Amino acid sequence: MAIITQYVVQHKGVDKLVTTDKKEADQYDKMLGIADNLSVYIQQKGIELDDTLAEELSILLAKNKDSVGKLLRGTDADSILEAEKADVVEMKKA
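Structure tokens predicted for YebG family protein:
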């Protein structure tokens, strides 16, 4: 019989990630924290979104924070999307 340590990331009472990798769990938890902050910021700026949509949008932005940062610095979206596609293709080869 084996003993397995699992890390469970919960968000609003729901298990979002179960993993044996502490670093992965910490990164996911941090991303969810960023998403929560983004959601609050968006809503405080007066943009009215359904709670589910606000959560999905903020998670999308948080998961892609590096690309969003490049967009905010003026890089065009097509360049970023092409680079992301190339990364996915490279990951599949590995």
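The chain has a mean pLDDT of 91.
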